[in-house]
Design brief:
Enzyme class: transferase
Strand order of the largest sheet: 1-7-6-5-4-2-3
Bound molecules: pyridoxal-5'-phosphate
Structural class: alpha/beta
EC number: 2.6.1.9
Number of strands: 11
CATH class of the largest domain: Alpha Beta
Subunit structure: Homodimer.
Protein name: Histidinol-phosphate aminotransferase
Helix content: 25-40%
Catalytic activity: L-histidinol phosphate + 2-oxoglutarate = 3-(imidazol-4-yl)-2-oxopropyl phosphate + L-glutamate
Strand content: 15-25%
CATH architecture of the largest domain: 3-Layer(aba) Sandwich
Distance between the termini: 65 Å
Number of helices: 12
Length: 353
């Protein structure tokens, strides 16, 4: 049995679009893609008269080294959002198959499922926001082809233990692909489960440069999975997903200097998280600060709406997460610079200056 037996059979058989850049590389005079022969005006567009490399070799190399996997196990796209969309489209037949999620969690899983007309099986997180693996496994129907697990979870901040991930991967073998979203893993103690994709062909891991790597605007996300899954998704991803200026920005971000800067900023976020958690909890009107392994804190208030407005009036925008189940009294506050965090504490403490 191949993990691709879980995918849509018509996609396995499909001939992908063959772009000019795929059919021939090299050459000095490029007259095969109807591009302009002239450079565009302005520095920012340098090189952009040519279509970009669909999966740039230097970026694949850098990301494979960063994530500790082989290049054939990587798909780079426009944020993890694109990988989520491609997974749902590749594995879920419209009107028939389904995904499983554990609310409250990241909204894009269900949005992508709705776009594809896939079903959504919801298995809520336990009261302490941990994953209930028994309940999850018990709720799965044969229609469920993808099980999304977000660790640390957005918007709550809790990590999922590695043992739980391994158990789910084992028990889902032959039934569903387990998609572990590690958007915030750089801020967590536990580390990535990417090393397990050699052991479990039904395990996929989402990583992104949008958070710890300070490149949300460049839209670079990576799916790590079995080479067969990656090959299938490379067939259905649009031909030139990665804009050249974004690839350049990513390579600079992943340089030795970029790595040193990211490490320093992760260190600051972790220290500030440790400082802010008890400081927020001690404020009047704060009921609870959920323990977080991410770069944000979910904070419960006596009156979350009033806290939101007070922050907003002071020019501070946080995320209102009251519409999520079990978070009806909560705001999600990203960890900023030490000065920004201090300002949050001051404003919530009653300083409106
Ligand atoms: C921010 C975030 C992402 C990252 O999305 P990109 O498209 O890579 O910017 C993925 N998953 C979760 C849970 C997130 O919070």
């Amino acid at each position: 049995m191949s993990v691709l037996d879980l995918a849509r059979p018509e996609l396995r058989a499909m001939q992908p679009y063959s772009s000019a850049r795929m059919e021939a590389s090299g050459g000095a005079i490029l007259l095969n893609a109807n591009e302009s022969a002239w450079a565009p005006a302005g520095e920012a567009g340098r090189g952009c008269n040519r279509y970009p490399d669909p999966q740039p070799a230097a970026l694949l190399r850098a990301l494979a080294a960063l994530y500790g996997v082989r290049e054939e196990q990587l798909l780079v796209g426009r944020g993890s959002d694109e990988a989520i969309d491609l997974l749902v489209r590749a594995f879920c037949r419209a009107g028939r198959d389904a995904i499983a999620i554990q609310p409250p969690t990241f909204g894009m899983y269900s949005v992508c499922a709705r776009i594809q007309d896939a079903g959504i099986v919801e298995v809520p997180l336990a009261a302490d926001f941990t994953v209930d693996a028994d309940a999850l496994l018990a709720a799965l129907t044969p229609a469920v082809k993808l099980v999304f697990v977000c660790t640390p979870n957005n918007p709550t901040g809790q990590p999922v233990p590695r043992a739980t991930i391994e158990r789910l991967a084992r028990e889902l073998a032959g039934r569903a692909l387990l998609v572990v979203d590690e958007a915030y893993v750089e801020f967590a103690d536990g580390g990535s489960v990417a090393g397990l994709i050699d052991t479990y062909d039904n395990l996929a891991v989402l990583r992104t440069l949008s958070k710890a790597w300070a490149l949300a605007g460049a839209r670079i996300g990576t799916l790590l999975a079995h080479a067969e899954v990656i090959a299938l998704l490379r067939k259905i991803i649009p031909p030139y997903p990665l804009p050249l200026p974004c690839v350049t920005a990513a390579l600079e971000g992943l340089s030795a200097q970029g790595q040193a800067e990211a490490a320093e900023h992760i260190r600051i976020v972790r220290a500030e998280r440790a400082r802010m958690t008890p400081a927020l909890a001690a404020l009047p009107g704060v009921r609870e600060v959920l323990p977080s392994q991410a770069n944000f804190l979910a904070v419960r208030f006596d009156d979350a709406g009033a806290a939101y407005q007070r922050l907003f009036a002071a020019g501070i925008v946080v995320r209102d997460v009251r519409r999520y189940p079990n978070l009806g009294d909560a705001l999600r506050i990203t960890i900023g610079t030490p000065a920004e965090n201090a300002r949050v504490l001051d404003v919530l403490n009653g300083d409106r200056a």
